[in-house]
Specification:
Layout: E1 4-6, E2 26-28, E3 39-42, E4 46-53, E5 56-63, E6 67-68, H1 82-90, H2 94-107, E7 112-113, E8 117-122, E9 129-135, E10 140-145, E11 150-155, E12 161-167, E13 175-178, E14 209-212, E15 216-222, E16 228-239, E17 242-252, H3 258-272, H4 274-289, E18 293-295, H5 299-315, E19 343-344, H6 348-352, H7 362-374, H8 376-387, E20 397-398, H9 409-412, H10 417-432, H11 435-456, E21 458-459, E22 465-466, H12 489-509, H13 512-523, H14 570-586, H15 593-605, H16 609-622, H17 651-664, E23 665-666, E24 671-674, E25 684-692, E26 696-703, E27 706-714, E28 718-723, E29 731-734, E30 741-744, E31 747-752, E32 757-761
Parallel strand pairs: 1-29, 24-28
Antiparallel strand pairs: 2-9, 3-4, 4-5, 5-8, 6-7, 8-13, 9-10, 10-11, 11-12, 12-17, 14-15, 15-16, 16-17, 18-25, 19-20, 21-22, 23-24, 25-26, 26-27, 27-32, 28-31, 29-32, 30-31
Helix pairs in contact: 5-17, 7-10, 10-11, 10-12, 11-12, 12-13, 15-16, 15-17, 16-17
Length: 763
């Protein structure tokens, strides 16, 4: 039996970590000469990459809502329906399906995300830089040249403007805006594919309108359908050796005047002053970093986590579009960006928002859900047209309006995409306990998806339900064999999770009849397919994972959904361990960087800290550019993957951050587990104000295998369950009455009030 000492005085939690410090900063001895190694700045809506070419400093500028939104002609055809697709798949005619649904993605230049342009400044006579630093705490890039010239630049955390200030320069400073090569022959045949990117000239835009003077430069570009955007930059000289400037990008549809808006925005910023904007900018970042922090003995993983959270804070903001493949850092290669810089919902957008929940950044996470809710009517219209059914599904690949872009038909037309998106609505509810959000967004989304899947599914002779066609991203790539006649574990895990969750939320809201409907529907779906010999998860019944593969879609039940959990008992532990063992046996030949980041999350769920940490280190050291951008392929060429290419996408970066957090704290299933996957070699670990389900914030410290202190802050009140981190040892407690804590087989039940703070401490 353990003994609790009740302390009726406040024990102040010691701060073990803080905002990122200089050891986490990006530090180079020169400016990068590639855009994907540049210093990234951003605020969710506008962004910049700072690099150089020859005698020019380049600011590659971007704005998240710059999109060519022309419709895909094939998707207006009457045959663009699931019924037509399934008929051709069942006749083994995959070529016709590919011609209708897949081909436009590679063949047509748009819809696509488009880059904004470059701001270039001549640095002739500056000599070579001696130091380039990205200060993560302040989101400030500083460049120092040997001649004494220093440049500081930042993208304001809230305002859609970027500032730069140079000391030690002689005026006039030469600045120039370079538009992307949008103009040309729109009928020119495609010269690339979705990965390498086609020529921007195929978009066929009219020439830009350029203007410049001694202290300003601007350009306005008209795109498809009357869409326009403009960049405006202005600068001044407060003294003989200093220049200060501001740039912005404004966008608008036909009839709007983005250049006027951009000019007014820059003038307003100049009226506020560099110092005033920098102060408000750093205040926002101070508040961002105060949300959570970690301290690890592994410098590689700790540093990478802070850099990932910096990118997350730079890429996601309410009021702006959510994180796309490259967010506010669209590829500056004078071509259409890889995979059109779009929104891929068979992995990419979902992984990008994994870290926001336990990292206590729910506000930034809402940028994703706000957008999904905004484009929900478009998705419902697509569901009605393509599936000819009521309810809600979502295109697996979409533009900024939620319209389908096509691509591999098995995944762009997957019937369970909206179910995976529903998981984020659920997590937002569980981590915030915001009942209004539950009632007006989370449950309505889940109910609509459940309605669609009820209508879409088939009833078999044995009474069980099945999908007419099923897939498992991205197993068998884009071949006919990528369509399965039996429901895959990917689809089935999402479906089983969805109906279980729909019942849970209906009961929470008092919708008892709906809860009964969802429970009944859940009982009509089969159990997950497991191998008879060792219980590992299969891709589909009778279909084991055939070879090394980048996408662990068949393991969705382990992570992120948590249907398979080691806390559930021996069967699930066996399934979890043997499923991960199979991945190791098949090897990483055809993994991407995000595969390692996702694997770390699954190892953390298995309680295997050693393997989780190793996967994270491989990701950070082998799959990232010097500026920490995830480049998909193995940049180290050390055999971590046979993919050695370098297309930049962000989902691996943010899945990495989530993996670190899973090692430190877990709460799936409503039980809090402290340090559930810490390597034995980690002798000193701590974190502050990470968030768990139930709207509780936790801070904790562990040294030499012993948890010394835990602080639990309750935002909304209610009961939480904590796996006793002290075992049979004595511990002290403050902030709660003895009668409000109960031990049930090693699980501490804590009843709390809103705002209550509880401290558990080794004596």
């Amino acid at each position: 039996m353990f003994r609790i000492s009740i302390l009726f005085f406040c024990v102040q939690f010691i701060s073990y970590a803080g905002v990122p410090n200089s050891r986490h900063d990006l530090l180079f001895n020169n400016l990068a000469t590639r855009w994907d190694e540049a210093v990234p700045l951003g605020n969710g809506m506008v962004g910049a990459l700072i690099w150089k070419e020859n005698d020019r400093v380049r600011f590659s500028l971007d704005r998240a809502d710059l999109w060519d939104k022309r419709p895909v002609a094939n998707f207006q055809k009457p045959e663009f329906t699931f019924q037509w697709l399934s008929q051709h798949v069942l006749k083994d005619d995959i070529r016709s399906v590919q011609d209708l649904i897949d081909a436009p993605y590679d063949r047509e230049p748009a819809p696509t995300k488009i880059p904004a342009g470059r701001l270039e400044m001549e640095i002739t006579g500056f000599s070579s830089p001696r130091m380039v630093r990205l200060d993560l705490a302040k989101a400030l890039c500083t460049v120092q040249w040997a001649t004494g010239v220093e440049m500081q630049t930042f993208v304001h955390a809230v305002e859609p403007v970027g500032w730069f200030r140079l000391h030690g320069v002689k005026k006039p400073l030469r600045l120039q805006l370079i538009p992307p090569p949008f103009g040309g022959d729109s009928e020119k045949p495609a010269g690339g594919d979705s990965l390498s990117g086609q020529e921007l000239s195929r978009l066929g835009y009219p020439p830009p309108q350029l203007d410049s003077g001694s202290q300003f430069c601007s350009y306005r570009q008209e795109g498809w359908g009357g869409f326009q955007f403009a960049i405006y930059c202005s600068w001044f000289y407060p003294d003989e050796k200093t220049v200060i400037g501001v740039w912005t990008i404004a966008s608008g549809e036909a009839g709007h005047h983005p250049l006027t808006a951009a000019r007014e925005r820059v003038n307003a910023a100049l009226a506020r002053s560099y110092d005033q904007d920098f102060n408000s900018h750093t205040l926002w970042w101070k508040r961002f970093w105060e949300k959570s922090s970690i301290t690890l003995p592994d410098a590689i993983i700790e540093t990478q986590w802070y850099r990932e959270m910096y990118k997350f804070g730079s890429a996601s903001r309410r009021g702006a579009p959510p994180i796309s493949l490259q967010a506010v850092w669209t590829a500056d290669e004078r071509r259409i960006p890889p995979w059109k810089g779009d929104f891929h919902h068979d992995l990419n957008t979902q992984l990008s928002y994994w870290p926001c929940y336990s990292a206590n950044h729910l506000e930034e996470g809402l940028a994703y859900l706000d957008w999904l809710w905004e484009v929900k009517p478009a998705a419902e219209a697509w569901t009605h047209k393509f599936y000819q059914l009521d309810g809600l599904n979502f295109p697996g690949v979409s533009d900024i309006q939620g319209q389908p872009l096509g691509g591999w038909n098995q995944y762009s037309c997957s019937p369970t995409t909206a179910a995976w998106l529903a998981h984020h609505f659920y997590l937002q509810w569980r981590y915030s306990m915001d009942r209004e959000f539950l009632k007006i967004r989370a449950y309505p989304w889940i109910r609509s998806v459940a309605t669609f899947l009820q209508e879409h599914s088939l009833r078999l002779k044995d009474g069980k339900r099945s999908l007419p066609l099923s897939s498992s991203p991205e197993i068998n790539d884009n071949r006919l064999e990528a369509w399965f006649r039996q429901t895959t574990n990917y689809d089935l895990s999402l479906i089983r999770w969805l109906y279980r969750t729909a019942a849970e939320l209906a009961e929470e809201l008092g919708y008892d009849s709906e809860a009964l409907t969802w429970k009944t529907t859940l009982s009509e779906w089969p159990e997950l397919a497991r191998a008879e010999e060792d219980g590992r998860l299969l891709v589909a019944p009778g279909y084991p994972l055939p070879a090394s593969h980048r996408h662990f879609s068949h393991l969705m039940a382990i992570h992120p959904l948590g249907l398979i959990d080691r806390a559930n008992g021996e069967q699930d532990r066996r399934t979890l361990e043997n499923s991960l063992a199979e991945l190791k046996r098949l090897g990483p030949d055809y993994w991407c960087g995000y595969s390692y980041a996702w694997l770390a999350n699954m190892y953390a769920r298995a309680g295997n800290g050693k393997e989780a940490a190793e996967a994270l280190r491989i990701f950070a050291q082998c799959f990232c550019s010097p500026n920490t951008f995830h480049l998909n392929g193995d940049q180290s060429k050390t055999g971590k993957s046979k993919f050695t290419y370098r297309p930049f996408t962000l989902e691996g970066n943010f899945a990495f951050a989530a993996g670190v957090q899973e090692m430190l704290l877990q709460s799936q299933g409503g039980v809090i587990r402290l340090f559930p996957a810490i390597p034995a070699s980690w002798d000193k670990v701590s974190f502050e104000t990470l968030r768990v389900e139930g709207a509780f914030l936790l801070s904790a410290r562990r040294e030499k295998g012993v948890v010394w202190e835990v602080v639990i802050q309750s935002e909304k009140g209610g009961t939480t369950r904590l796996e006793n981190p002290f075992g049979a040892r004595d511990y002290q407690i403050s902030g709660v009455k003895k009668n409000d804590i109960r031990d049930d087989k090693g699980i501490l039940w804590l009843s709390t009030q809103a705002g209550q703070r509880i401290t558990l401490k080794n004596p």
